[in-house]
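Form 12-C: Joint structure prediction
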Amino acid sequence: MVAKLTEQQSDELKGKEYTKDSVFNPIQDANDNWVISLEEVEQCDIKWVKELSLIEYEPKQTDNLI
Amino acid sequence: MSRKFVYYGAGKSGGLDPDALAFLTATGITDPTITTAIDTLVKDLKAQSLWGKFRYIYPFVGSSATTNRFNLKDPRDLDVAFRLQFFGGITHSGGFNPNGTNGYANTFCAPASNVTFNSEHLYITSNTNNTPTSSNPVDTGTLNSVSQTSLLGISTATNSEQFASRMNQAVISVLNANRIGSYCATKNGSTNLRLFKDSLLVANGTSGGSLPTFYNLIGTLGRSQSGTNTSHFTNQNYTFATYGDGLSDTDVANLTSIEQAFNTTLGR
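Section 2 - Result
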């Protein structure tokens, strides 16, 4: 499971620490939803992040480099 | 004026190697088992003339982002000291464990600026055999293009059971059904890329190309100048990682022996 964001919420979190020495990393899933991990949700203290809806994670297919 | 003295383990800090002491001071670690393990690790690497060959050594001790981020070779809290920056979901208990969804670490170390072409190694230890959750995971390295890259993966290919490296062009790979182990990819003065698992040579071949300019990442692959990334994530628990000059077969055997003794001391 991952937490779903709007693009605006994603932009707001990029580069921001969610806990000491660790930075949010919003990514897009296979359906182009912006998402963050449960670890980020659980360890941050931002109220609206903790209220995000959860969805199944479907990874985006990437190029095979090896 | 008061003076504060810090004691490590049973003895005074004066008995510790200065590089071990600098790392322990930077991380704030006082645990006697970790202190002894780090001190022995540094002394053993120096005794085998390996210490000078590393640009970074991440021993992943202390079970927190704050302690895991420091480079044993240069434990300053600076990007130029290759202090790690963590992104996305990561667990720091008993090593560095990115979640395979969006977690990774940026080393700030670009191969082209820090090693010589055809003299390079990547080394990483996993104590888990997790099935990857992302497509085409890469455990460490970076890639400007397929002919300008330095990367190592232990869960590659469609069945996720290949140990492979591209350094700096052609891919060398071998079947790897169990991801637990100590992995090294190295070129030691020629285009011959040699892959080792637990110090055993498991594959080798020619890989030409050139050195990448992007930063090495751990837990994924560097794909941009900024060190940010959104794909190729891995989900193993890493207990040790290094990067630096090319290693001889004897160097790899010595490094693996020292690293495995280090992790045995720490019970992992």
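Section 3 - Comments
The radius of gyration of chain B is 18 Å. Chain B touches chain A through 39 residues (CB under 8 Å).
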